[in-house]
Amino acid sequence: MVDRVEAGRSASTQAHARIAAALGQHIEWELVDPRRRADRPFRTADVVHSAMGEFEAGKLRPLVDGLGLDEPYQHFQFAGRADLVAWIVDSAALLHLENRTRFPDFQDMAGAYNAKRAYLAGTLRERLGLDRSRTESHVIAAVWSAEVLHAIRMRRESFHALCPDPPDAFAAWWEGRPVPTGRTSSLVVIDPLARGRQRPFVGLDEVLADVRPRYRDYADVAAALAGNGP
């Protein structure tokens, strides 16, 4: 039943209420005339988030043995999806990217990211053939906007605690170099429209050192993706 509801199929009000209660969430109802629904954009579509995944997958796919987008995992009561995972079999290395276009709720974001750091690799090892995994690179990848930079700078100590490592491991994955062994957690801000000689990402220390934004906010990135922005 849960699979059906998550896939967008119809279910009873009672079923929705029970799932929401189990997850500690509240329900929001939208009453829409089905004859007019096709005329309205799907409000939860996230074009910037999708563009980040496309940009990262296009860069990483030729450099790794395997790559997954929106990869599901479950560990007892913890279940979710990883935005992007990549792996290299010979070195038993796993990369996990958590893409973020905004940070409206730091605690909620940190809880979801920490659950994936704790349980994602263990649940994927057998499936991916990485039962000797020696390298885990966990990365929060946030879009390179003024909105995001401001949110990070307002919580600099929190982000340092959550992502204490420099982006060296992520840079090695991105450039196709050997990834240092060990378990790391880092943050980068990334430009999904980076071209030519533009730097595609910078790390947390550079963000806190007042690196300049490339976009104003989410809407600015979306406009650029549509060909109406910088």
Task: Give an account of the 3D structure.
With 230 residues, this protein is α/β, with parallel strands linked by helices. The chain has two domains: 2-37, no CATH class; 47-225, no CATH class. The chain is 41% helix and 22% strand. It has a six-stranded mixed β-sheet. It starts with a helix and ends in a 5-residue tail after the last helix. The model is unreliable at 37-43 (pLDDT under 50).
End-to-end separation in angstroms reads 45 Å
Work out the radius of gyration: 19 Å
Main β sheet profile: 6 strands, mixed
The count of strands amounts to: 6
Q: What is the helix/strand order?
A: HHHHEEEHEHHHEEHH
Task: Identify the strand order in the major beta sheet.
Answer: 1-2-3-4-5-6
How many distinct folded domains? Answer: 2
Which word captures the global form?
globular
User: What are the low-pLDDT stretches, counting only 5+ consecutive residues below 50?
Assistant: 37-43
Please tally the helical runs, counting DSSP H or I stretches of 4 or more residues.
Answer: 10
Structural class: alpha/beta
- How much helicity do the residues have? 40-55%
Strand content: 15-25%
For the residues shown, what is the average pLDDT?
A: 86
